[in-house]
Amino acid sequence: MADAIAVLSAGSSSIKFSLLVIRSAELELDLHGQIEGIYTIPHFIAKKHDGVTVAENLAASVVVSCLQQPRQKLGKARSI
Predict the structure, then answer these.
(1) Contact 60, 45 (CB under 8 A)
(2) How does pLDDT run across 16-40, given as a tens digit for each residue?
(3) How far apart are alpha carbons 46 and 34 in whole angstroms?
(4) What total number of domains does the chain contain?
(5) Contacts of 22 (CB under 8 A, 6+ apart)
(6) Pairing state of beta strands 4-10 and 14-23?
(7) d(CA 50, CA 52)
(8) CA atoms of 28 and 62, how far apart (whole Å)
(9) Rounded to an integer, what distance in angstroms lies between the CA atom of residue 44 and that of residue 59?
(10) Domain that residue 44 falls in
(11) How many CB atoms lie within 10 A of CB 42?
(12) What is the pLDDT of residue 49?
C-alpha cells in the first residue's frame, strides 16, 4: 500500500478534499471531490485523477444530517 496525504478544505457551505499518493518520491493526485450546498441542497462528488467520477450523491445526506444536529440544538437553545 502506498503512503498518502489527505487534504481537506472547509468553507462556509462546502468541503473539498484531495487524496495525494506518494509514488516514486513524487506526489500524485489520486482522488478529489467535494460536498457542496451543505445547508441547502447537498451534492457529493468524488473523481479519480483522470476526471472519471467514482461516486456521486452518496454520503451528502449523512454528512449534512450530522452537521445540522448541533445547529438545530443550538437553534432550540436560542429560542428558550
Answers:
(1) no
(2) 999 999 988 899 999 999 998 887 7
(3) 7
(4) 1
(5) 2, 3, 4, 5, 28
(6) antiparallel
(7) 6
(8) 29
(9) 7
(10) 4-79
(11) 20
(12) 92
In terms of residues, how long is the chain?
80
Place of cell 478544505: 9
The answer to whether residues 47 and 53 touch, using CB atoms and an 8 Å cutoff, is yes
Task: Select from 21, 13, 41, 19 the least CA-distant residue to 32.
Answer: 19
Rounded to 5 degrees, what are φ and ψ at 10? -105, 125
pLDDT at site 50: 94
The model's pLDDT over 25-78, given as tens digits with 9 standing for 90+, comes to: 899 999 999 998 887 778 889 999 999 999 887 544 555 566 665 555 445 544
Q: Please name the residue that has the C-alpha cell 496525504.
A: 5
What is the model's pLDDT at position 1?
Answer: 62
* Cβ atoms of 38 and 63 closer than 8 Å: yes
0.85 exceeded by pTM: no
